[in-house]
TrEMBL record:
<dbReference type="InterPro" id="IPR023696">
    <property type="entry name" value="Ureohydrolase_dom_sf"/>
</dbReference>
<protein>
    <submittedName>
        <fullName>G6804 protein</fullName>
    </submittedName>
</protein>
<dbReference type="InterPro" id="IPR023801">
    <property type="entry name" value="His_deacetylse_dom"/>
</dbReference>
<dbReference type="InterPro" id="IPR000286">
    <property type="entry name" value="HDACs"/>
</dbReference>
<feature type="domain" description="Histone deacetylase">
    <location>
        <begin position="21"/>
        <end position="325"/>
    </location>
</feature>
<dbReference type="Pfam" id="PF00850">
    <property type="entry name" value="Hist_deacetyl"/>
</dbReference>
<dbReference type="InterPro" id="IPR037138">
    <property type="entry name" value="His_deacetylse_dom_sf"/>
</dbReference>
Amino acid sequence: MAGAQLAYSVAPSAGHDLAGHYECAKRIPAILEALQHNKLTAESQPQKMRKLPGRVASSAELEAVHSSAHVATMKRKAAEDAPCVVADFEEPPDNTTYMAKSSFDDALHAAGSALEAVDAVMEGSDAKAPKGFAVIRPPGHHATRESPMGFCLFNNVAIAARYCQERHHLKKVMILDFDVHHGNGTQDLFYEDDSVLFIDMHQNEVWPGTGQINEAGRGKGEGTTINVPMPVGSGHEAALKAYQRIVRPAAVRFAPDIILVSAGYDAHRLDPLEKLNYESATYHALVSSLMSLADELCGGRLVLLLEGGYSFQGLSEGVCNSFQALTGGQPLHEVDSSADAEPGRAVDEVLDEVVALHDL
């Protein structure tokens, strides 16, 4: 429906699966079941929401950020070697980057569905576009120009950013990454590019070990990479403080034509991998703030792309709260008043350093 507030695409990639792995095929069904339960679907709210049919990305769209050799290697490995491991970063095997027979095609559907969400947002009114959400896997923000990494085969958000520029002729793209892990692949791809503002809120001193405050871009891109390494235990208040002190002023200064979000939900307090303590309500607050920011700066153009999230409950609640925000609804969950105290002083010290470095 043309007047929908939210256009969303889904690429569940059911064949891209490895038993016992964190990044498994059960992730998307958990999200879809929760969306249906909360009546956050196009079927339940046809006036507010539109589900997109899905499409695959072309080789040319992938090669806007990846080398042709990387694309060819991924295709060959799926055809000839799968099931196989294509990148290790840690034992045990549930921390590998794997490929099944369908993984190459599944990754094309994930990237293509992200671009489809961009198209839906760009087709909206210049005055106020619908928001977009790509519920996709495998994730993408660790994949580099030449290599798969960290459960990621192709870098969906980077492909979307270049697509915004090359297909839709937008000059300036902002990417916010709030996954618990640093989006090293995205950073590398745009590190010398002043047309893309990359802001990453992640847990400090966890895998992949990148994303320190002094990683701020190089050459023409100096200053357009902003890293916010959050201390262990940072929760709801820390996330909102980082948005207010860093994300918003940096965005206002940059004045993007569209905002893309690497929306990882593994900073949720229930997630098994790391130790940030975001609440389900944190995601409603962050996404609501980003909506207002997009309305103010770039005609409402905002697209979220799913990244991590490995507690099915935390993942599904986070996505549902994001959908609720994107359609103008109230939070589905309250902030837990009994949650552990946040490391307020440590958070303030990090934010102070980022603000000083970037003159925010």
